Amino acid sequence: MIQYAMAAETIVLARKDLYDQVWTTPMRVLAGKYGLSDVGLAKICKKYGIPRPSRGWWAQKQAGYKVEQTPLPKGDEDTTVRIWVDHDRASRRDHVRGIVAGTRRKKTPREKFAVLQTLTDPHPLIATVADALIAVEPGANGLVLPPPHCLNIYVSPESRDRALRVIDTLIKVLEAEGHEVRVLRASTSAIIEGIRIPISITEDLKAERLHAREHNLDGPYEFGYNKYVRDVASGKLCIRIGSVDDNLRAPVRRLWRDTDRQRLEDVLYAIVQGLEKIAAVMRADERKKQQEDYETGDDI
Known about the structure:
The protein is α+β, with helices and mostly antiparallel strands. It has helices at residues 15-22, 27-33, 38-47, 57-62, 87-101, 124-135, 157-176, 268-296; strands spanning 3-4, 10-14, 80-84, 153-154, 180-184, 187-192, 195-209, 229-241, 255-257. The longest helix has 29 residues, at 268-296. The protein starts with a strand and ends with a helix.
């Protein structure tokens, strides 16, 4: 028997009940019922020793093939399984999906997202910051802090050219989509239909162990010198969009970085989509707040 907690946030059911549901309802559908991802539900099944249909099992069943159901391993079938249901998370996900579905973008050709190997005909904002970054000495961590009124590009001299090419392409694509990028004092923002969204490109740091000869030998000797490390430029870039102060009512991705599998050059399309999603969510949140203020009389 399934029991619901008073707050309707924790669902309590027997291990056998969850097993039966897993084999009668596709995981993605069942996970949505509980406000979980299919990966999250799979982890719960693993925790309680509940087998799941293998990949392609449901397709074979729908096609009329005879499929086998893995029996529930021996154990206490009445073992209590608790599933925490985040209704707010599910509603936020549906909220942002609805917003994004209603957002219509210009279809900039994918080739426009290609980052060239050399900086060609740079955007005026890029030309300005390029000269400024060359004139500034790197800090202790090897990164160059851009001067005020320049694009927020915080990278090492070795990564400077690549960062400029990536941001140059991103700015040009945004403008082709009808958006713009502005620099106000020390802040760089994309302007999406009047919504200002902070954007920056930085270089990740990595820890580098100091060797004994790099220490100041004039001072007192310290044991454990091999434990000393310092932060240095890693060569890996990341782009951040939005602000932690946005307080958005829906989850939206805000960070992309170089990985072993992909580089920022490969995800510019997703970054543009991310900016547009944040703008759409911010507009929807503002309308919702105005409606709530109207209903409560706070706007009077």
